[in-house]
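Sequence, structure tokens reproduced for reference:
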Amino acid sequence: MDASLQPRTAAPWFGQPRGLVVLFLTEAWEKFSFYGMKALLIYYMIRHLNFQQADASTIYGAYTAGVYLTPIFGGYIADRWLGRRRAILIGGSLMALGHFTLAFESAFFPALLLIALGNGLFLPNLPSQVGDLYDEKDPRRGGAYNVYYAGVNLGGMLAPLVCGTLGELYGWHVGFGAAGIGMCVGLVIYMMGSRHLPQDRPRSAEPAAAMPAGQGGGSFLPLLLVALAVVVFRSAYEQSGNTLAVWVQAGVDRSVWGLTMPMTWVQSLNSLFVLLLTPFVIGSWRRAAERGRELSALAKMATGAAGVALSYLALSLLVASQGSTPVSMLWVVAFFVLYTLGELYILPVGLGLFARLAPRGMGATVIAAWFLASFGGNFLAGLVGRAWEPLGPAGFFAALAGIAGIAAAALFALRPLLRRVERQPA
């Protein structure tokens, strides 16, 4: 990292640069906001706005797709004009406003638009600062995105417990309001910790001749193909807050010690297991690297997609064997363990891969391109969700297993194409 860009305070916290802790906490609160609203959205549309399931799933998919499309433009605007810090502050403010606007039923769609636009400025610019906290040869750099990803899931775990409970017990708008407050807390943390973050890199300081080998246009074709495979994967993966949430309401026995668990709480399981499993996953990768046997990025991603496929296949077989009897929560917990383990092998690894191959001065833009794959996958997931009622739970989960399996095969097949780029230093 250029010395002129280093944060003024270099003393580490928990063995990591202080800036990573600031970014971790900012992201945790932003995701508390995002997932708090998302935990309520499908139920709000079906139970309060009286949308049909197929229409609600399509709208859900279009919205979650939109929040990953706008970062393409937000990343470019930040790289060219605003700078990352101003983009984050403006974007976060728009997102908070959007959450508060959900209090008005007539403003439902404008509120979703505000959140999507704000997210476009916020989403690509926060993680693009992670790499600039480290020197290129810093051994901590490789696992930094997994640490950052834990922040994503800390907010994702707490959001359904807080916003979901408030929404179910005291009204949907109370839950949406709590999500907006969470976004405001994240912005305050970011502003207070800004002295620990790297400075925005001036465009004039990054001539094309300074780009390291492997970081030019030659890396874009492999990344494009990887992104297309991720689109297919996410069309299955993103059903956890959509059709899977619909199934949880009626198809799962949520009674625990004589009490019925709120349906939104189930959406905390994924993030909970991300937090619990991340240290073990990183540790296993470190031990494999010490023995010279660590998998390549694409091999990890293919393994992750296969794990998600296996989780859906097991769920399909379980539902088929149960018939009309509600499934025990213990089986849902087991599903999320396998589902999350697969996720850890593909999503943070893919984010780190795109960040590493970004040309200098285009960090936010290239990371936004990673989120473009999320846009395609979420939009496709909304359309796939329309098959929920025609196929029924067992058939639908089997179809999701097939979709994730196809993505796994595609990622595995792309390994030779990316092998030369993978050998470049992180």
Q: What stands out?
A: The chain has a mean pLDDT of 84. The first strand starts at residue 252 and ends at 253. The domain at 17-198+216-422 is CATH 1.20.1250.20 (Growth Hormone; Chain: A;). Residues 18-48 form the longest helix (31 residues).
